[in-house]
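May I ask for a sample protein chain and its fold as tokens?
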Amino acid sequence: SSLLFTRTAQLGGSVHGITVVGHLAYVGSGPRVAAIDLSQPAAPRRVGQSPPLPGQVANLLAFPAAPDPTLLASAGKYLVVLDISNQQRLSITNQLVLPGAISAMALDLNEGILYAGGSIYQAPYQYSGFIATVDVSTEDGPRMLDRVPLLESPRNRTDSKSSVSSEGGVTSARGPAGISQPCKSLSCSRFKSSNR
């Protein structure tokens, strides 16, 4: 059977990053995260937004294991933690600078570990990549645990499991369904070499 999608309503412009929590969609719109009420699908409405983040929002992940309702947002090279307990006024609670612009994120909810991948400027039109493990389970804010350099930037893959991969054949990370043992280092068995 095939799916047929019909536009019932539209709100706003360019969206980068989206996650849904209950009846609210959180979307990246430029350097802000907007909360969109979807309780009436034919009439979505913006109910709140964050202050400007330090870069354009590219990825969003809900983190339900946090003490307060929390979103993780990538904004350039910044990983930003947002408190979403007040949907009218999303607030920045913490941020972490990573080695380069974040292009992919996957979250292991069981361990509270975020895998963030991105690009690092080397020279005009030349970028290398990285995948970093970040502990997002502490109240002190996110903390980078380890990182692996890559030949190119990783991208999110869309499938039934969270993943971050590099098409250059260097490294791939899968979570949470593909993770069976606790590990907080990139040198553990969670990462496999994939020579494509």
About this structure: Residues 159-196 have pLDDT under 50 and may be disordered. The CA atoms of residues 23 and 40 lie 9 Å apart. DSSP finds no helices and 16 strands in the chain. The two ends are 33 Å apart (CA to CA).
